[in-house]
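Box 3.1 A note on notation
Throughout this textbook, protein chains are presented in two layers. The first layer is the amino acid sequence; the second is a token string describing backbone geometry. Keep the layers aligned when reading.
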Amino acid sequence: MSPTDRPVSEPDPGEPVEADLVELYALVAARLKEAHARVRALDVSEPTRAALTRSLLLVTEAAKRDLPEAARRLARFTDELDSGSLPLAPKP
């Protein structure tokens, strides 16, 4: 396959990552950092704080595989945090 026949979605090895993707990584990282700080500052039980932290860790893990989906999940998490609809603490 010649370089001109290569699919558009497959970048050449050594090509710089697209600027938009780099910006999205930076945005998600900054928002994750902010969300973690907000969770630490909440006046909630430790089980509730742990559940919120686990949710953020799942978003972090998702960012490794699907950055746009992680950004959407983080936005939903932040919206829920803003509205005060916190997840229930896990049952013992």
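Residues 1-8 have pLDDT under 50 and may be disordered. Residues 49-83 form one domain.
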